Amino acid sequence: MNQKTTEAIKELLYKMADDLLIIGHRNSEWTGLGPILEEDISFSSMAQDKIGQAQALYVLLNDLGEQEPDTVAFMRNANQFHNSQLVELPNGEYDFSLVRHFLFDHADQLRFESVANSNYEPLAKVARKVKGELKYHVFHANTWFVKLGSANEESHNRMQAAFNEAWNYALGMFEPSKNEYLLIAEGIFEGEETLQEKWLANITPFIIKAGISIPSSETWNPVYGGRVGKHTKHLSPLVEEMSEVFRYDPTAEW
Amino acid sequence: MIKSLDPRITRAEINLENTIEPLRDLDQWETYEVFHQKKRGDQHMHVGIVHAPNAEMAFIFAKEQFGRRGLSVNIWVVKTRDVYVSDYEDSDIYETVPEKNYREAGGYKVMDKINKFKKGL
Question: Which helix (H) or strand (E) holds B49?
């Protein structure tokens, strides 16, 4: 593999891993505060899955010459993260967290599906391993999204408002990366544009079923920047809180 | 406001003056009984209950509650109120008069006959 392709793979791995680490951390903030016990456990358990998936990707980055997974996760500053801005936004009420879970997890599942047949075998292997987890996450998201979107007036209005708030950030997940043409050419990843098309096709039936309206396309204004380290003011405090214990003594054994 | 070492609790701005409100309708969903199967062909075993507003949500909760550790291939969820439950006061219906040993396998002394048959060979 030549140097340029390696850089392109790292770019892909960083955005996938950082998305998962940050949304995993955000979702874990619900632990103990979830709406009911059973959902609290399910949502927390999925948050743990996401951290585990992030870790598997940081291991691949480590194999490509990046720092140790813990160092990468806990010792960077906010502007060194490549996650989309969608995942760093505060949890808000449970409606927003569920809508984000729905929009993100569909994209995440497709991203992993896309690399499951990748010519970069280590990533393909991780993708095949997490397939079952992702299937459950998406099933969980669909169930809640459709149920609350169509339950009663209050739940519908809340879901619609959360959806409108999340939409442009969700489009920002598909920010093109400068080296992705290499990955497309080498059969490693199909690219953000294709991914977004597939994502729209996958989420639309559930959106219709939930009775939610997608903002009209002339108002679409994807929030880009996250992939190149531009973030909202919310990421820095998150990173600080997430890495507080690790940074207290980076050499400690756990 | 509660100030906690856990920053999430502090952020939640929980007012200590809040009185506990009585339960309202829809505060609690109904319960579903969960049956879990370890591997294909095994019997589904009753493992517990979950609260849920419908069967699909009962399943997504049951999966994490009871299916995330060890082996799992399948889960059934059944509305608790759809389960017919016998009365403990009627436990005596399971007792039976001991003299009816003709109804028990042990009531038949066949070994003598078998041994006799074997010797006859």
Answer: strand B45-51
Rounded to a whole number, what is the distance in Å from the CA of B107 to chain A's nearest CA?
A: 51
Q: What is the model's pTM? A: 0.88
Cα gap A72→A77, rounded to integer Å: 10
- Asked if the Cβ–Cβ distance from B60 to A241 is below 8 Å, we say no
Note whether residue B52 is domain-resident.
Answer: yes
Answer yes or no: is B82 within a domain.
Answer: yes
Per the structure, the count of domains in chain A is 1
pLDDT at B27 over 80: no
**pLDDT tens per residue across span B38-84:** 999 999 999 999 999 999 999 999 999 998 888 999 999 999 999 99
Of A32, A37, A147, the CB nearest to B57: A147
Given a cut of 70, whether residue B26 has pLDDT beyond it is no
CATH at residue B83:
3.10.20.520
A42 neighbourhood in chain B, CB within 8 Å? 60-61, 63-65
The pLDDT > 90 percentage for chain A reads: 94
Does residue B113 lie in a domain region? no
Domain that holds residue B41: 28-94
Half-sphere exposure of B43 toward its Cβ, with a 13 Å CA cutoff? 3
CA proximity to B60, closest of B34, B99, B86, B24: B34
Q: Do A143 and B57 touch (CB under 8 A)?
A: yes
Please write the tens of the pLDDT for every residue from B81-115: 999 999 999 999 988 887 877 887 777 788 888 88
Chain B nearest CA to A55, separation (Å): 19
Q: A231 — phi, psi (to 5°)?
A: -130, 165
Picking from B54, B61, B63, the nearest residue to A39 by CB comes out as B61
Residue A254 domain flag? no
